[in-house]
Amino acid sequence: MRSLFPVTDLTTTGPAAPDREWSLDELAEAYAYPAGLTADPSAGLAAGTSWLRANMVSTLDGAAQHDGRSQPISCAADMRIFGTLRGLADVVIAGAETVRLEGYRPARAREAFAARRAAAGQGPAPAVAVVTGSMDLDFSLPLFTEPLVPTLVLTGAGAPADRIAAARKAGAEVVIAGDGTRVDPARAVRELAGRGLTRQLTEGGPRLLGQFVAAGVLDELCLTISPMLTAGDAQRIAGGPGVAVPERFFLASLLEEAGFLFTRYRRTDS
Length: 270
Description:
By secondary structure, this protein is α/β, with parallel strands linked by helices. The protein is 26% helix and 22% strand. It has helices at residues 24-30, 76-88, 96-102, 111-119, 142-145, 161-169, 185-194, 206-215; strands spanning 2-5, 51-59, 91-95, 127-131, 152-155, 173-176, 199-202, 220-226, 249-257, 260-267. The protein has a ten-stranded mixed β-sheet with strand order 1-9-10-8-2-7-3-4-5-6, sandwiched between helices. A hairpin with a 2-residue loop joins strand 9 and strand 10 (260-267). The longest helix is centred in the first third of the chain and has 13 residues, at 76-88.
């Protein structure tokens, strides 16, 4: 069963929805960014014109990974939504550990999103932005040597100078988003928006998502709830220090397939 439930009514009273695959156009409409965002840095940016969404998956018992990776708790529909979210974004933000564990490659151009991206003033594919304080990255990997658009490296002003030079030599664009060796999450969002990368998507990992949550800059969470139990001590979707007061999000949409729930929550003041 594949179902799309309107946010105002999460129950169905009529016949079951037809068992068919959601089209990419349907998913693109369901996950569209808010209107008013621009990918043109020359247009200038007012406060609040960027939008940071996260895409994560969790088991029923709160595990964000199995054996260190998210793929074992995912499914085909989850990966289809994963691709849609990338197809809509200006930039995909990921922590260095996630880039290493998940074997990140450059985002690719997809014909299915070409017209939509062109109409929105976007390039053919999103940039990938890697968040790292240590700059402990392998700059010989395809993510840096073969991107369709240059990969960005977000780091602090105190990062090792030789590693910054190595990143630039490999063709990456280094973005300073912190005063020391650490990246300031709110500044990272602003620096990317200032480059016209206003439709922002983070895929974690948990430590990076926790930093965005603690900084109060996460606008939306796209969370896949996997109908699996893993036990063990796997990470949650967000890690790090807790916030003083839990921040309330509201349910914006809900899709279901084969027991997987594809939820979309937005911050109440967004």
